[in-house]
Amino acid sequence: MIYFFTLKLKKETNSDFFNKVFQIVEMIPCGKVTTYGLIAQKAGLKSSARMVGWALNSYAFSTRLPCHRVVNRNGELTGKKYFGTPTMMRELLESEGVEFVNDRVDLKKFLWTPEIAL
DNA sequence: CGGGTGACTTTAC
DNA sequence: CGTAAAGCCACCC
Hints:
Elements: H1 16-27, E1 34-35, H2 36-43, H3 49-58, E2 70-71, H4 88-95, E3 100-101, E4 104-105, H5 107-110
Parallel strand pairs: 1-2
Antiparallel strand pairs: 3-4
The structure holds a DNA duplex (13 and 13 nucleotides).
Protein backbone atom coordinates (compact mmCIF):
# COMPACT_ATOMS: atom_id res chain seq x y z
CA MET A 1 0.00 0.00 0.00
CA ILE A 2 1.12 3.47 -0.73
CA TYR A 3 1.00 5.72 2.26
CA PHE A 4 3.62 8.27 1.43
CA PHE A 5 4.62 10.61 -1.31
CA THR A 6 8.26 10.60 -2.07
CA LEU A 7 8.85 13.28 -4.64
CA LYS A 8 11.41 15.97 -4.05
CA LEU A 9 10.68 19.05 -2.07
CA LYS A 10 9.70 21.97 -4.20
CA LYS A 11 11.45 24.27 -1.80
CA GLU A 12 13.28 24.31 1.45
CA THR A 13 11.54 25.89 4.36
CA ASN A 14 13.05 27.35 7.48
CA SER A 15 9.67 28.16 8.88
CA ASP A 16 9.17 26.91 12.39
CA PHE A 17 5.51 26.60 11.78
CA PHE A 18 5.87 24.39 8.74
CA ASN A 19 8.43 22.18 10.38
CA LYS A 20 6.08 21.63 13.27
CA VAL A 21 3.26 20.91 10.89
CA PHE A 22 5.33 18.26 9.17
CA GLN A 23 6.41 16.81 12.46
CA ILE A 24 2.81 16.49 13.57
CA VAL A 25 1.52 15.04 10.32
CA GLU A 26 4.30 12.51 10.43
CA MET A 27 2.97 11.27 13.77
CA ILE A 28 -0.58 10.60 12.69
CA PRO A 29 -1.08 6.91 13.31
CA CYS A 30 -2.30 4.56 10.64
CA GLY A 31 -6.06 4.36 10.61
CA LYS A 32 -6.57 7.78 12.16
CA VAL A 33 -7.10 11.28 10.85
CA THR A 34 -6.72 14.77 12.24
CA THR A 35 -7.80 18.22 11.15
CA TYR A 36 -6.10 21.29 9.77
CA GLY A 37 -7.30 23.34 12.69
CA LEU A 38 -5.82 21.06 15.33
CA ILE A 39 -2.51 20.94 13.55
CA ALA A 40 -2.40 24.70 13.21
CA GLN A 41 -3.15 25.07 16.87
CA LYS A 42 -0.45 22.64 17.94
CA ALA A 43 2.03 24.19 15.55
CA GLY A 44 1.55 27.59 17.11
CA LEU A 45 -0.65 29.49 14.68
CA LYS A 46 -3.99 28.90 16.27
CA SER A 47 -6.20 30.39 13.60
CA SER A 48 -4.20 29.60 10.54
CA ALA A 49 -5.61 26.32 9.43
CA ARG A 50 -5.27 27.54 5.87
CA MET A 51 -1.54 27.54 6.24
CA VAL A 52 -1.55 23.85 7.04
CA GLY A 53 -3.20 22.95 3.78
CA TRP A 54 -1.06 25.45 2.01
CA ALA A 55 2.07 23.96 3.52
CA LEU A 56 1.12 20.48 2.43
CA ASN A 57 0.38 21.59 -1.09
CA SER A 58 3.55 23.61 -1.44
CA TYR A 59 6.11 21.64 0.51
CA ALA A 60 4.96 18.38 1.91
CA PHE A 61 3.21 16.97 -1.05
CA SER A 62 6.44 15.53 -1.55
CA THR A 63 8.10 14.64 1.64
CA ARG A 64 7.05 11.39 3.21
CA LEU A 65 3.99 12.60 4.94
CA PRO A 66 0.72 10.71 5.20
CA CYS A 67 -1.11 13.83 4.15
CA HIS A 68 -4.23 11.86 3.26
CA ARG A 69 -4.81 11.59 7.00
CA VAL A 70 -5.48 15.30 7.25
CA VAL A 71 -9.10 16.31 6.75
CA ASN A 72 -11.13 19.38 7.50
CA ARG A 73 -13.19 19.95 10.61
CA ASN A 74 -16.19 18.03 9.31
CA GLY A 75 -14.21 15.03 8.17
CA GLU A 76 -14.52 16.00 4.53
CA LEU A 77 -11.68 15.20 2.17
CA THR A 78 -11.17 18.69 0.87
CA GLY A 79 -7.73 17.90 -0.44
CA LYS A 80 -8.71 14.90 -2.50
CA LYS A 81 -8.31 16.75 -5.76
CA TYR A 82 -4.59 16.92 -5.17
CA PHE A 83 -4.22 13.16 -5.05
CA GLY A 84 -4.27 12.41 -8.72
CA THR A 85 -7.68 10.81 -8.84
CA PRO A 86 -10.71 12.03 -6.88
CA THR A 87 -11.03 8.69 -5.12
CA MET A 88 -7.42 8.14 -4.18
CA MET A 89 -7.51 9.86 -0.82
CA ARG A 90 -10.58 7.98 0.29
CA GLU A 91 -9.18 4.68 -0.88
CA LEU A 92 -6.02 5.24 1.07
CA LEU A 93 -7.98 5.94 4.22
CA GLU A 94 -10.36 3.04 3.75
CA SER A 95 -7.43 0.73 3.21
CA GLU A 96 -6.28 1.74 6.69
CA GLY A 97 -9.64 0.98 8.19
CA VAL A 98 -11.10 4.47 8.31
CA GLU A 99 -14.86 4.40 7.83
CA PHE A 100 -16.96 6.97 6.05
CA VAL A 101 -20.46 8.28 6.60
CA ASN A 102 -21.99 10.31 3.83
CA ASP A 103 -18.63 11.00 2.19
CA ARG A 104 -17.14 12.09 5.47
CA VAL A 105 -14.74 10.44 7.84
CA ASP A 106 -16.44 9.26 11.00
CA LEU A 107 -14.52 11.61 13.24
CA LYS A 108 -16.04 10.26 16.43
CA LYS A 109 -14.21 7.02 15.84
CA PHE A 110 -11.15 8.04 13.86
CA LEU A 111 -10.12 11.50 14.96
CA TRP A 112 -6.60 11.64 16.33
CA THR A 113 -5.62 14.62 18.44
CA PRO A 114 -1.99 15.69 18.42
CA GLU A 115 -0.74 15.64 21.98
CA ILE A 116 2.89 16.42 21.63
CA ALA A 117 5.05 18.92 23.39
CA LEU A 118 6.86 20.77 20.67
C1' DC B 1 3.77 47.97 -0.41
C1' DG B 2 -0.59 46.16 -2.03
C1' DG B 3 -3.76 42.93 -4.01
C1' DG B 4 -5.07 38.18 -5.07
C1' DT B 5 -5.24 33.31 -3.73
C1' DG B 6 -6.07 29.31 -0.89
C1' DA B 7 -6.03 21.13 1.26
C1' DC B 8 -9.60 26.26 6.78
C1' DT B 9 -12.89 27.74 10.60
C1' DT B 10 -16.64 30.13 12.66
C1' DT B 11 -20.59 32.69 12.81
C1' DA B 12 -24.65 34.18 10.74
C1' DC B 13 -28.75 34.15 7.92
C1' DC C 1 -28.71 21.42 3.06
C1' DG C 2 -26.81 26.31 1.06
C1' DT C 3 -24.26 30.95 0.65
C1' DA C 4 -21.52 35.00 2.72
C1' DA C 5 -18.30 37.28 5.30
C1' DA C 6 -14.50 37.83 8.34
C1' DG C 7 -10.26 36.33 10.17
C1' DC C 8 -6.18 34.08 9.09
C1' DC C 9 -0.93 34.34 6.95
C1' DA C 10 2.71 32.72 3.45
C1' DC C 11 3.51 33.26 -1.14
C1' DC C 12 3.45 35.28 -5.70
C1' DC C 13 3.08 38.68 -8.63
